[in-house]
Amino acid sequence: MAKKRSLPFNIDAEKAVLGAMLVSQNAIFDCMPVLSEDSFYDEDPKNRLVFRAISKLYKEQSPVDIQTVTNELIVMNAQDIVGAPEYLLSLTEETFSLSNLSTYLRMVKDNALLRKYLITLESIQNNYNSSKVTDISSFIQDADKMLRDVAENRSIGEFKTSKEVVMSVNESIQNQKQNNSSLLGVTTGYPKLDEYTLGLQKKDMVVVAARPSVGKTQFAINLLYNVARNASVPVAMFSLEMPAEMLVKRLLAVRSEINLKKIQLGHLEQHELNTIKTAVNDLANVKMYIDDSPNCTLMNIITKARQLKAKEDNLGLIVIDYIGLITLGAGHKSESRQQDVSYISASLKQLAREIDCPIIVISQLSREVEKRESNRPTLADLRESGAIEQDADVVMLLYREDYYKNQGNQAKELGEKKLN
Q1: Which of 37, 241, 272, 354 is catalytic?
Q2: Fewer CB within 10 A of the end CB, N or C, for the chain?
Q3: pTM of the full predicted structure?
């Protein structure tokens, strides 16, 4: 049996970082935002205790040097453990060139991250050993989340100077000039919509909302197909409400201009079969992924989207139908559905930024629309959470005048049938 390896650490790098913080205020400014006590290996507590003392002084806006840190260690009853001030003096004497601080800082951070990752793996193993796993899917999702939470701490964003930003913007402007395009993103296939949105842009979360049966899903899959065909990029759809076969039938009906009911029943003439065959070939030639798993959790969607992005780097669009059916998993204790939807909305916006791809999220509108004389929807009608409109970069509210006119006729016809 292989001998268990100790957790990774680099004591020399830790000493170098602490020594730099003792002699340079700029080093403190560089280190404090990205380090914590856990960044230092705990088998020998000296370095952790020194960092704790420096951190306390820093938060109190007190000067940091050998004397002040020694005094703080005395207050902490840790002077003898550390061996202050002698140990602190040794740290400053071993200090490297401050120009190399970033190298040693990265070593400390990387080792801390790897330790945390390995400890998390061990925790997952212990969870498995200590209790019977009744829901394998939930166990894997929870484990995946624990590991991803660690991985997402790999780096913390830093300030960008105005020069860096303006140069990047200028490069973008020059590229747009050379492309001579009227769009900033990928075309929706609807010229008027492109005029308003300048195309579906990377990192954007777009909300498409309407009352039931207005045509949200159909509109979304039309956008999905248009993006795949016009931009020649892979696209994906999470359909929590409708099976993949039905989605494709709807697309075939649009592409062939043949009534959906005739396609479903198979009541087709030969020329219509030929037209559908052409539409089938068109659809087969675009790269469209459809996941129609029912009861899909947020973690399912995030994990699958990340996997697809790793497989298809030029992923052009993701559609999620619809946000009201996304759950947070069996183990999640919910205080309210509104809070759940707020969390889901924020997570999907973060996902769009992470995978550098526009995400269309379909949402329902509340019944308040129908109480209004005009029946025209507003942002306030978004169902279950006001966070959706805050997180969205673009909100499209679908309105069809004939929908409300036909509602009255259908109700009248239904009433006559019941009476007869």
Answers
A1: 241
A2: N
A3: 0.64
